[in-house]
Amino acid sequence: MEKQQENNNNQEIGTDVDEQLINEVENQLSDDTITLQDSLQEIVSLKNQIEILQDKLLRIIAESDNTRKRLEKSIEEAKDYAIVSFAKDLLSVNDNLSRALEHKPQNMEGELANIITGVEMTKSELTNILQKHGLESIEPLLGEKFDYNIHHAISQIVSDEYDQDSVIAVMQSGYKIKDRLLRPAIVQVSKKVS
């Protein structure tokens, strides 16, 4: 009997120990599950932050590259067009030399011939220098179609000889430097009788 009671006591103690052990394991599993869920949520959150930071980094790199390209283009333009105001001032000198040569006398002798030759040489040298620095003359041909991008019309003249809006007289040559217009060619254009 004592043995049986001892077995019953042991069974009760064993049952209590088993229940206690089961409770501890369940608590531990529950805590592990919560910890595992928290860890997974934290991992997902960190991955999202990494993606956001990678996107920001790529945008910053792209913006930096664009800024560098804009700066390089600006420097290149500054090199190409640095002489624009100086060139504009020289164009009037070139125009005056051209006008002087348009009115040279037919019969030249002695000193007058030497002066005219000097003016021609000066104009030629100035034209070469302008071309050397990228200035290009705009010399419309008679009958050429009027182009408002490079021509400036000061008048329209009725003409049966030329098509409508054709250049019929060039009053002043135009100039451009690379692809930038310095001064349009000043022209007269034709107009048909209505």
Describe this structure in words.
This is GrpE protein homolog. Keywords: Chaperone, Coiled coil, Cytoplasm, Mitochondrion, Stress response. With 194 residues, the chain is an alpha+beta fold. The protein folds into three domains: 1-82; 84-133; 136-194, Head domain of nucleotide exchange factor GrpE (Nucleotide Exchange Factor Grpe, Chain A, domain 2), CATH 2.30.22. 63% of the residues lie in helices and 17% in strands. It has three helices and six strands, in the order αααββββββ. The chain has helices at residues 2-81, 84-102, 110-132; strands spanning 135-138, 151-158, 167-172, 174-177, 180-183, 185-191. The strands form two sheets. The protein has a three-stranded antiparallel beta sheet with strand order 1-4-5. A three-stranded mixed beta sheet has the order 2-6-3, with no helix packed on it. A hairpin with a 2-residue loop joins strand 4 (174-177) and strand 5 (180-183). Helix 2 (84-102) runs antiparallel to helix 3 (110-132). It is rod-shaped and about 140 Å long. The model has no long low-confidence stretch (mean pLDDT 84).
